[in-house]
């Protein structure tokens, strides 16, 4: 089979590999829709998780099952499926502790294009199929379904980590696709004022549609000063970090109330340390919490988020700004994510359908 791979840090290309083998609990799928992610960009061009050689990229997909192991109960060849970007080992001790995304070690539930070949190929392997696949609901668009693999659950997890409550004032830093889904999640959770930090007009417009009350444009001044001005110097209750860099935490701590919480789902691809301001952190005693997490994967998560799509609570298909057709166009779609033109939110590659 052919696949689009990271050859080494900074280099990509098409390669040929043997088809993956199906274990007794596993499934082999072919993609029917794919989406490149900024994480792929960090992985290849920043070397964020270390050097990888001839590793097929991609972790966002909708698939069709072509083979299942003899112990798989709920899926069969021909089924159209949602594929979670994070595919834990559900019988692991970490899963039993409530941290399935770290099954086998930190971040080890993230297998695609990290520890094994990803989904940008003619076929891909899914471990623990009954736990990590979900049936594609009838009538769900491939655009929405593909976003349920990663963008939706990651943005929602940021809101969970920040523990957004009814009436909270919330800042979402970064309104790319993950941040936009965090805005939508904060609105569903009952946030009051939602301050969305970003500068692109199409992202700002969609953030407002998803529930943002204010746009904080970092090109128009310091975002901390803007947020403190809007909150009369008090700061906000919760912050979701879905973009920025290692210095973003400095800004987040400065605009957070004592007792507030920062939920980070931003993939920090470079640098060795984060900067936290000592005084604004209450000299270490300000009860300002910083929690970072990899989004939960698995079937139940996918099914619940799919319900929100099918009941029109969320509209992740609106993230799609660029559509490609055919597996061969995974490469230009990924390069689009790397170059990030101003009109981009998220590209998708439709293989069939």
Protein topology:
Elements: E1 2-8, E2 11-16, E3 27-34, H1 38-46, E4 55-56, E5 61-68, E6 80-83, H2 93-96, E7 124-126, H3 129-132, E8 133-135, H4 142-147, H5 151-162, E9 170-173, H6 177-188, E10 194-197, H7 201-210, E11 214-216, H8 223-230, E12 236-241, H9 248-254, E13 256-264, E14 289-292, H10 299-310, E15 320-325, H11 330-339, E16 346-350
Parallel strand pairs: 9-10, 9-12, 10-11, 12-13, 13-14, 15-16
Antiparallel strand pairs: 1-2, 1-4, 3-5, 3-7, 3-16, 5-6, 6-8
Helix pairs in contact: 5-6, 6-7
In short:
The chain is of the alpha/beta class. 27% of the residues lie in helices and 23% in strands.
Would you mind describing this structure in some detail?
The protein has two domains: 2-150 and 295-350, Medium-chain alcohol dehydrogenases, catalytic domain (Quinone Oxidoreductase, Chain A, domain 1, Alpha-Beta Complex); 153-292, NAD(P)-binding Rossmann-like Domain (Rossmann fold), CATH 3.40.50. The protein has eleven helices and 16 strands. The protein has helices at residues 38-46, 93-96, 129-132, 142-147, 151-162, 177-188, 201-210, 223-230, 248-254, 299-310, 330-339, and strands spanning 2-8, 11-16, 27-34, 55-56, 61-68, 80-83, 124-126, 133-135, 170-173, 194-197, 214-216, 236-241, 256-264, 289-292, 320-325, 346-350. Strands 3, 5, 6, 7, 8, 15 and 16 form a seven-stranded mixed β-sheet that branches. Strands 11-10-9-12-13-14 form a six-stranded parallel β-sheet, sandwiched between helices. Strands 2-1-4 form a three-stranded antiparallel β-sheet, covered by helices on one side. The longest helix is centred in the middle third of the chain and has 12 residues, at 151-162.
């Amino acid at each position: 089979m052919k696949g689009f791979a990271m050859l080494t840090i900074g280099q990509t290309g098409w390669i040929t590999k043997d088809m993956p083998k199906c274990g007794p609990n596993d499934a082999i799928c072919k993609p029917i829709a794919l989406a490149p992610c900024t994480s792929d960009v960090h992985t290849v061009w920043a070397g964020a998780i270390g050097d990888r050689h001839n590793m097929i990229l991609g972790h966002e997909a909708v698939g069709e099952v072509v083979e299942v192991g003899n112990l798989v109960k709920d899926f069969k060849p021909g089924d159209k499926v949602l594929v979670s970007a994070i595919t834990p080992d559900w019988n692991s001790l970490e899963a039993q502790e409530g941290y399935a995304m770290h099954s086998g070690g930190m971040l080890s539930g993230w297998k695609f294009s990290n520890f094994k070949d990803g989904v940008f190929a003619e076929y891909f392997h899914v471990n623990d199929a009954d736990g990590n696949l979900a049936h594609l609901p009838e009538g769900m668009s491939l655009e929405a379904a593909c976003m349920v693999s990663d963008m939706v659950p990651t943005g929602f997890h940021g809101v969970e980590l920040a523990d957004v409550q009814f009436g909270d004032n919330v800042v979402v830093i970064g309104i790319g696709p993950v941040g936009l889904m965090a805005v939508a999640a904060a609105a569903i959770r009952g946030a009051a004022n939602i301050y969305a930090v970003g500068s692109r007009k199409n992202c700002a417009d969609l953030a407002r549609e998803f529930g943002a009350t204010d746009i904080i444009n970092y090109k128009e001044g310091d975002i901390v000063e803007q947020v403190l001005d809007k909150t009369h110097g008090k700061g906000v209750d919760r912050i979701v970090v879905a973009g920025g860099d290692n210095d973003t935490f400095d800004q987040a701590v400065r605009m957070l109330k004592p007792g507030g919480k920062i939920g980070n789902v931003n993939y920090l691809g470079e640098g060795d340390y984060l900067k936290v301001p000592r005084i604004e952190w209450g000299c270490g005693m300000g009860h300002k919490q910083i929690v970072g997490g990899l989004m939960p994967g698995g079937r139940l998560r996918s099914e619940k988020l799919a319900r929100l799509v099918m009941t029109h609570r969320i509209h992740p298909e609106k993230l799609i700004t660029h559509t490609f057709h055919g597996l061969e166009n995974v490469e230009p779609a990924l390069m689009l994510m790397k170059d990030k033109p101003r009109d981009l939110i998220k590209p998708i590659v439709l293989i069939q359908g």
